[in-house]
Amino acid sequence: MTGFNRRTAVATLGALAMLSAVPALAQDYPTRAITIIVPFAAGGPTDVVTRLVSEHMSKTLGQPIVVENVVGAGGTTGATRAARATNDGYTLIMGHVGTHAASVALYPKLAYDPRTDFEPIALINGAAIVVAAKKDLPPKDFKEFVAYLKANEAKLNQAHAGVGAVSYITCELLNGIVGIKPVGVPFQGTGPAMNALVAGQVDYMCDQITNVVPQVNGGTIKAYAVAIPERSASLPDTPTSAEGGLPSYQASAWNALFAPKGTPKAIVEKLNAAAAKALDDEKVIARMKELGNDIPKPEQRKSEALGKLVKDEVEKWGKFLKPVG
Ligand code: MLT
Predict the structure, then answer these.
(1) Separation of alpha carbons 135 and 316, rounded Å
(2) Residue 97 within any structural domain of the chain
(3) Which residues have a Cβ under 8 Å from the Cβ of 272 and sit 6 or more positions away?
(4) What is the number of domains present in the chain?
(5) Are both 219 and 298 inside the same structural domain?
(6) Stated pTM of the model
(7) pLDDT tens for residues 161-181?
(8) Model confidence at 15: pLDDT above 90
(9) Backbone phi, psi, residue 74, to 5°
(10) Is residue 133 situated within a structural domain?
(11) Is the Cα dihedral 120, 123, 128, 130 positive or negative?
(12) Residues 115 and 262 grouped into a single domain
C-alpha cells in the first residue's frame, strides 16, 4: 500500500470512528456530572424547583446534577451563558417565561433568541403569581392595596429580580393596570428580594407562589391576591385578584429545562424522560403541590410542546412589553 493510500485509509477509518462515536456518546450519556444553570440567586423559586426536580433526575440518570446560580440582568446573563455552552448535554438551564419569552421584547440586543438558540427539553411547572407585601403595609385587603398603590405611588418600593424576571414582568402588568410607576428595586433573585420584604425594606412584590407559600405559612409577609381565576389550595386564605376587584390582573409563570442548540436529539430525549419521571414521582408531586405549583400534564411535557409554548409566549409578552432603556 502506497503512503498516499495508507494516509487515506487512516483518515477514512478515523472519520468512520468519529461518526460511529456520536450515537455511542448519546447512548452512554451521561458519563459525568451535569450542570443546570439557574439564572437567579439561590433560594428563589427557580432555584427551589430546579433542586427539587434535578435531585430526582440525578437518580434516574445515574450522575450528579450540579446547580450553578449564574445571576444578573433579569436572568438573561445565565441564559446567555447556557446558549453559548457546549451542546454535549452537560450544561442545561432552568429558564422561564421571563428568560425564554418576555426578555425578547425587553432587550433589543438580547444575546440569544429563546426560539432558536436552545433545544427545548421539558416544561417543569406552572406557578401562579402572588401579590405579596411587607407585613406592616397598612391595607387590609387587595381592594385597599390597589387604592393604596394609587395614593402612594411616589413613595412605594416594588422589589423584583431584574428587568425580564417574572417578578418584573408580572408587576409591570399589575402597575400598568393600576396606572402607577413605583420605584423598582432589583435583586439577583426573589430569594434575596423576599428577605428584604420580610425585613420591611421594600413594600411589595409580584412573586411566584413557590416562594410566597413558605412565608405566608410562617406569617412573615402579607399575600393580598393570587392572580389566577381560582384560589390556590396552598394559599386557601388568599383571595383571587378577581375577588379583590381586579379581574383583569391574571398572571402565572412557568419554568422549563433547555439545552444549547445542537444538543443531540437522543440526549434531549433522555433528559426529557428523566424530567417526566421526576414529575411522576409522588414525593416530587407532593412538594410541588405544597408550594402551589401546577404539574404539567404528559402532553405538555413533550419537548415539541415546550418549543411551541416559547414561540407563543414571546409573541404574547411582545404585545405588552416595550424595550427597556
Ligand atoms: C423571577 O422573578 O424571575 C424569579 O422568580 C426569580 C427567582 O427565581 O429568583
Answers:
(1) 34
(2) yes
(3) 121, 122, 301, 302, 303
(4) 2
(5) no
(6) 0.92
(7) 999 999 999 999 999 999 999
(8) no
(9) 65, 25
(10) yes
(11) negative
(12) yes
pLDDT in tens, 30-87: 999 999 999 999 999 999 999 999 999 999 999 999 999 999 999 999 999 999 999 9
User: Residue 26 Cα, ligand 1 centroid: separation in angstroms?
Assistant: 32
Which residue has its alpha carbon closest to ligand 1 atom 8?
46
**The Cα angle at residue 166 between residues 165 and 169, in degrees rounded to 5:** 85
Atom of ligand 1 nearest to the CA of 38: 8
Establish if 209 belongs to a structural domain.
Answer: yes
Cα distance between the two ends of the chain? 68
In terms of domains, do 64 and 110 share one? Answer: yes
Same domain? For 91 and 155 the reply is: no
Query: Which parts of 59-144 are beta strand (E)?
Result: 65-69, 91-96, 118-134
Contact indicator for 211, 44 with CB cutoff of 8 Å: yes
- If asked whether residues 274 and 205 sit together in one domain, one would say no
Mean model confidence pLDDT for the chain:
94
Cell digits for 193? 428580594
Alpha helices in the chain (DSSP H): 3-28, 45-61, 76-83, 103-106, 142-151, 166-178, 190-198, 209-217, 265-279, 282-290, 303-320
3-state DSSP assignment of residue 206:
strand
Indicate whether 25 belongs to any domain.
no
Residue 37: give its domain's CATH number: 3.40.190.150
Burial of 189 (0-12, 13-18, 19+ CB in 10 A): buried
Residues with CB under 6 A from ligand 1: 40-41, 44-46, 75, 98, 161, 165-167, 189-191, 207-208
Give the whole-angstrom CA distance, residue 263 versus residue 270. Answer: 11
Domain that holds residue 68: 32-126+254-318
